[in-house]
Specification:
Layout (H helix, E strand, L loop, with lengths): L20 E4 L13 E5 L12 H4 L1 E9 L2 E2 L3 E4 L4 E5 L2 E9 L2 E6 L4 E6 L8 E3 L7 E5 L2 E9 L1 E7 L2 E7 L6 E8 L14 H19 L11 H10 L1 E2 L11 E2 L9 E2 L2 H8 L4 H10 L13 E2 L15 H10 L8 H21 L9 E2 L2 H4 L5 H6 L3 E2 L1 H20 L4 H22 L35 H11 L6 E2 L2 E2 L18 E2 H13 L3 H18 L4 E2 L11 E2 L2 E2 L5 H14 L3
Antiparallel strand pairs: 1-2, 2-3, 3-4, 3-9, 5-6, 6-7, 7-8, 8-15, 9-14, 10-11, 11-12, 12-15, 13-14, 16-17, 18-19, 20-21, 22-23, 24-25, 26-27
Length: 593
């Protein structure tokens, strides 16, 4: 039974901006008739997303089934930009997240809708609200769903999975049901107060259309065909302050289910990608700085409930991205008080690394763990261990010192302080050249053991963000290596490990093509005066995203995104907003003649 897809639920769980409700297929579901199963999912996680490892039961919470003659019948799943549609041989159900906390479902074909929550410890699963509408309250992991039958009759039943509720259609074969998500005891509204299904669809359509118009109203040539899917993926992973979560500003999460968090070094990248809408960009950029500990460290991943402290840390890419926004006039609208608020925190974030990540006091900072690098399996630190001094960390830090000076100038910082930060940045660049360039390639080293890396990993070459601050011969030699036969260049973008390297392993940063590497290296090539190479890489990367989906990991030898990848019990690294936003930015920037 063929069905048209706006997005495939095996590629991307389906939500809307600001909602903690999503739709997904089974963890082991397929596109085939009879192997598709529709679930309502709860996107709330407490602390770092990966703390909830049992994702098949922790994420997918409520099963939705079409029932005919008392038997659940096979289905396939279809999506539009506004709806999820459960299709059977006997009819269909249509669902829309008509409000951030409410799903509206309708059926017109005489089918019964069965709604089954997963069993929860010490819970009856279904609680009768004992009102005239016969509403029921069902478990939804960290919250609960209020089920209100608007057309049709609600009954309770018990099955193999536990208690469930069913909505049977009226005499015309129609039903309509509202499922409302509540963290606290539900506030019931009169049946007449619910919107029509058509109003729900229009609500989604208008919200998404407004986002598209502000963020990226069109893309050039062949890249236009995937524009709406890319924008939708970012839109549906956008979180908004709601008084219940810990989010204080708009943030963009990474992936539904397994990385259901907004990560600290992704927000400044998102701010650049969203910068056609400067107000949204500024909001997203500042969001990371709402979560800072007493020492100035930013929380790594912000979930529904943030988890301060711990070992989470990411490289200080914030400063360079802020410089890009300033240089491109994207924060001109921001009030000076907001800039001063950010400046205070950007200074603390910068000084954090100087105070706590330069253990030997040589003026160069080191990573302490793999998680801190942002490149969770990179070959360079696997060869030298930790602590690991590397050119990427120190280059980001030098650029952040410059960003402090640049933002400080907009905030009335004394010229003496501005000059000091610029001088410190220049001195750090000198050390980077002295310690991390061996005459042929970029290296990392362990300051405790003296061991030096001997691998060709792209993260070391992000030092090219320094552009003309580096000696010309280093820039030229680096680019020659990158695009040489043993380098990173492929028809699909830049691989993260040298193509002939003995460390090439198709991992996250051991040979695959990944979003941050493509984006950062394109900007680095621009800074080195090679917009032609940035365009080549950017266009090639956009083509594989358009053709194979917005997976943040693509195979460097085939260009394909891989649904079969698994992480933390979830079969499939879904489409990522990290990637979808990068797509529409790079297609806009590099896809034009």
């Amino acid at each position: 039974m063929a069905t048209k897809q706006f997005v495939n639920l095996l590629d991307a769980p389906y939500s809307r901006r600001g909602s903690f409700i999503a739709f997904a297929n089974d963890n082991f579901g397929e596109d085939e008739y009879g192997r598709s199963h529709l679930w309502l999912c709860n996107c709330r996680t407490v602390g770092f997303a990966m703390a909830n490892l049992d994702h098949d039961s922790g994420y997918r919470q409520i099963k939705l089934e079409a029932v005919r003659n008392g038997v659940a019948v096979p289905c396939t799943l279809k999506t539009t930009a506004e709806e999820v549609i459960l299709v059977t041989r006997h009819g269909e159900f249509r669902f829309c997240i008509g409000e951030r906390n409410m799903v509206m479902g309708v059926g017109k074909d005489g089918l019964t809708l069965r709604i089954t929550p997963r069993a929860k410890f010490l819970s009856p699963g279904v609680i009768n609200m004992m009102d005239a509408e016969n509403r029921q309250l069902i478990d939804f992991n960290l919250s609960r769903m209020l089920v209100t039958p608007l057309v049709g009759t609600l009954t309770k039943g018990a099955g193999f999975m536990g208690p469930y509720v069913e909505i049977t259609p009226d005499e015309n074969g129609e039903l309509k049901v509202a499922l409302e998500d509540f963290l606290i005891d539900p506030v019931k509204r009169a049946v007449a107060e619910y919107p029509t299904y058509e109003e729900c669809v229009e609500s989604v359509r208008a919200d998404f259309a407004e986002f598209c118009e502000k963020v990226m109203p069109e893309l050039p040539g062949e890249f236009e065909e995937a524009r709406l899917q890319a924008l939708w993926q970012t839109w549906n992973l956008t979180v908004l302050p709601d008084g219940q979560s810990d989010y204080k500003r708009t943030m963009i999460k990474m992936i539904h289910c397994i990385f259901e968090s907004a990560f600290v070094w992704q927000q400044p990248m998102q701010a650049v990608w969203l910068s056609r809408c400067p107000e949204l960009s500024w909001e997203v950029f500042r969001s990371s700085f709402d979560f800072m500990d007493a020492n100035g460290r930013l929380v790594d991943g912000v979930a529904f409930k943030a988890m301060p402290g711990g070992d989470g840390l990411k490289p200080p890419i914030n400063g360079y991205m802020l410089s890009w926004l300033i240089d491109n006039g994207k924060i001109d609208h921001a009030p000076v008080e907001e800039k001063k608020w950010l400046l205070e925190r950007l200074i603390k974030w910068t000084e954090y690394f100087v105070k706590f990540r330069d253990k030997d006091g040589d003026g160069l900072c080191e990573f302490q763990t793999a998680l801190e690098t942002g490149w969770e399996d990179a070959s360079y630190y696997n060869t030298v261990g930790f602590p690991c001094a590397s050119p990427d960390l120190n280059s980001y830090l030098a650029l952040q010192m410059e960003a402090v000076a640049k933002l400080g100038a907009l905030c009335g910082m004394p010229q003496e302080e501005i000059d000091s930060y610029n001088s410190r940045a220049a001195a750090l660049v000198e050390k980077i050249v002295e310690k991390f360039w061996d005459g042929e390639k970029w290296i990392a080293f362990n300051p405790e053991t003296g061991a030096k890396s001997d691998t060709l990993n792209i993260s070391l070459y992000t030092a090219l963000l320094l552009g003309d601050r580096l000696p010309k011969e280093i820039v030229e030699k680096s680019i020659e290596t990158m695009f040489g036969p043993d380098g990173f260049d492929t028809p699909y973008g830049l691989a993260t490990e040298g193509l002939t390297s003995d460390r090439f392993a198709h991992g996250f940063t051991q040979g695959s093509i990944i979003t941050p590497a493509e984006f950062i290296m394109c900007l680095a090539l621009e800074n080195c005066g090679r917009f032609d190479l940035a365009k080549k890489v950017g266009v090639n990367y956009c083509k594989i995203m358009k053709d194979n989906g917005f997976f943040h990991i693509h195979d460097a030898l085939t260009g394909k995104g891989d649904r079969s990848l698994t992480a933390f019990g979830e079969r499939g690294l879904f489409w990522s907003a990290w990637t979808s936003s990068c797509y529409f930015f790079m297609a806009d920037r590099y896809g034009r003649d």
